[in-house]
Amino acid sequence: MNDLSQLAEYYQHQPRLKDSGRLDQLKQIEEPSTVIHFLLGNLYSKEGDLSNMIHHLIKAWSGKLLKDASILEYFKSKNEYFVHDLVSIGNLLRGFIGAKESDVFYSEILKLQMNDQIVNRSTTVEYLRKKNNFKNYLEIGVFVGQNYLQVQPEFAVAVDPVPKIPKLEELPGHKKYYPIPSDDYFPELCKKDFPDGLDIVFIDGLHTYDQSLKDVINCLPFLNSDGWIIMHDCYPKYEAASWPSMEKSMQHPTFKGVWNGDVYKSILWLRSFRNDLEVCVLNKDHGLGIIRKKKPGMMLSFSEKEIKEMNYEFFEKKAHHYLNLKNVNSFTDLDELFS
Question: How many CA atoms does the CB half-sphere of 13 hold within 13 Å?
Fold first, then answer.
């Protein structure tokens, strides 16, 4: 069912779709950018009929989505969070079309971001990998693989106790996956996988102070002297996002769909107790913590008790100072920051 008019005709008899006006949208699709617009507009619908139609649409247009230049122009017209939706399409491709097609799509998505110098978790990993000619990579907390499936190291390991990546068994040979808690990966499995040490680590596991800090501490003995740790969710922008419990966060009156947890406290602890680490947070992608083995220019002086008991109101007043927050908008900014 590759012809879109046939696809529209096929779903013409589904009442909910007929009444929604989506079939009229479907008939007007003439180019890949319009396909993307339609897909993103309906991507998270829970309607069974619509879900099936989207899967057919992806299958019919997957080749053109990868090759047509109009996808680039559509991509460039959006802000950085549009990447998340493109990655969602890649995930659907993987689940309903095939892992190889999805891998190509993810590669194209990453290329687009790198060319546009969009700073986020995936491009920061790739920027550091290419700049330092790094060979290996560890990711803790993978979820559906929106970062792990994009990055391109020679050897990569992912650790997550609840695998959500479609067709997990079809990962390319240079990428491994352990469906275990991160605590169980250290030290023996890490030592076996990375006998020459870790180049880059990306941490996006459980969004709590205790576990995120433990993940950093577990990685440090294996991190090479010129290696880097990147930690996601270090800068919650409002109170509900900062709660250590996702359930309580969602019930909070200020909840806006984002849960970062209290990972930010790990940054405060590292800046208060580790005089051998340089730590800052990039003001991008929910706050990207950057950690490397280097004498810091300035430290904090919080006690463990003060960090543990700190509330968001106190943190928010001097968040930029506490996090050593850095505003970056391009790889040129990263060059200056990491020189």
Answer: 2
Whole-angstrom Cα distance, residue 158 to residue 258? 23
Distance (Å, whole) CA 143 – CA 190: 20
- In the three-class reduction of DSSP (H, G, I as helix; E, B as strand; rest coil), residue 208 is classed as coil
pTM for the structure as a whole: 0.84
Listing DSSP states for 17-54 in one string gives HHHHTHHHHHHT--SHHHHHHHHHHHTT---HHHHHHH
Q: Among 155, 149, 199, 203, which Cα is nearest to 175's?
A: 155
Task: Identify the DSSP state of 294.
Answer: S
- Within 8 A by CB and 6+ apart from 258, the residues are 236, 237, 241, 286
**One-letter amino acid of 2:** N
pLDDT tens-digit readout, 8-29:
444 444 444 344 455 455 555 5
| 263-286 pLDDT tens trace | 999 999 999 999 999 999 999 999
Q: 76-119, pLDDT tens digit by residue?
A: 565 555 677 677 777 777 876 788 878 888 888 888 889 889 89
For the chain, the helix, strand and coil percentages under 3-state DSSP, each to the nearest 5:
50, 15, 35
Domain 121-337 matching CATH 3.40.50.720: the answer reads no
Tokens of 261: 């947890």
Q: Would strands 223-231 and 198-203 be described as parallel, antiparallel, or unpaired?
A: parallel
Domains of the chain, by residue range, sit at 4-115, 121-337
Extract the tokens encoding 83.
């990447």
CB atoms within 10 A of CB 182: 23
Question: How confident is the prediction for the chain on average, in pLDDT?
Answer: 83
